[in-house]
DNA sequence: TCTATTTAAGATAAATTTGTCCGAAATAAG
DNA sequence: CTTATTTCGGACAAATTTATCTTAAATAGA
């Protein structure tokens, strides 16, 4: 469904958000541990998220990653996925046809559009805030 | 969403079904042309579908691939996808956690389960017969 | 200023997926 | 029986994704 990069990116962002809600900045090392992801690969993904303005990074001792508290409830799952995987998941035909739309559909077009619209609206309607809150109060988990 | 192998496999199976409904056997070469897929790679996928009993193959001159007419309306999209990609798409956590269920969910568990159940039931409820018929009457297309 | 720490960035490597090639096996037809 | 055709199977190659390593840049604190 999602790429590994996306899985790690989502988990990391949620973890950073929880810490940011408690006014704490977190290091790459801590993130990778708490999120159970490969350190160096996670670094790449966080760099990308930082370039896309979703998270902030700070170099040096006491450095690390954080998210502006005011932005946490404005960031959606869609923005995170889009920053990492681009919009390939959201566009394009289910069977890989270059040209496929309602006027010249592939055999699964209608059914596929339904599923994907469903996925899209889920991603748009899910805020980082609700994901982070669920983790913070112990309702959800990121490891194993 | 689907792997390339799956895309090619679905398209090929639909094409074979249409021909089989007209009592025609088709060669690998014709399939790859009509479905716009790499010949040798398509061969591998068809071999797998044949081993899974979804399509029949025949060697030698006049050989090729076909599907028993009586099976066409019993075969589902789910069976095709499952034969090619296994059940990795249908099981497993959205964020890659080894252990993730309602009792110890990841942050996107509920939302993800919803989407995937949606996908699953679409695949289960879509028959090869309806896909092949749509193509046969010119309502849908497989190329470009 | 110097040092230790942390992220940034680029090169490199491993793993997986996608794709090709070629000889073997089957088989229809002359 | 021989030949031409077609799928089968395995080895091989290219492309993409996943993952690592190393050096540079920033920066906090002594």
From TrEMBL, chains A, B:
GO CC annotations, alphabetized: cytosol
PROSITE patterns: HTH_RRF2_1, HTH_RRF2_2
GO MF assignments: DNA-binding transcription factor activity
Origin superkingdom: Bacteria
One Pfam family linked to the record: Rrf2
InterPro entries referenced in this protein's UniProt entry, alphabetically: TR_Rrf2-type_CS (IPR030489), Tscrpt_reg_Rrf2 (IPR000944), WH-like_DNA-bd_sf (IPR036388), WH_DNA-bd_sf (IPR036390)
Record NCBIfam families: rrf2_super
Protein name, per record: Rrf2 family transcriptional regulator
């Amino acid at each position: 469904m999602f790429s590994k990069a996306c899985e790690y990116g989502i988990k990391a962002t949620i973890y950073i958000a929880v810490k940011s809600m408690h006014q704490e900045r977190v290091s790459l090392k801590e993130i990778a541990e708490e999120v159970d992801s490969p350190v160096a690969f996670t670094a790449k993904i966080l760099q990308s998220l930082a370039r896309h303005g979703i998270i902030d990074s700070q170099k040096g001792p006491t450095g690390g990653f954080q998210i502006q508290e005011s932005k946490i409830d404005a960031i959606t799952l869609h923005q995170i996925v889009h920053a990492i995987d681009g919009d390939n998941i959201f566009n394009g035909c289910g069977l890989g046809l270059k040209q496929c739309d309602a006027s010249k559909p592939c055999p699964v077009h209608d059914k596929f559009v339904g599923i994907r619209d469903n996925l899209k609206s889920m991603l748009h309607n899910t805020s980082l805030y609700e994901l982070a809150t669920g983790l913070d109060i112990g309702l959800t988990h990121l490891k194993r």
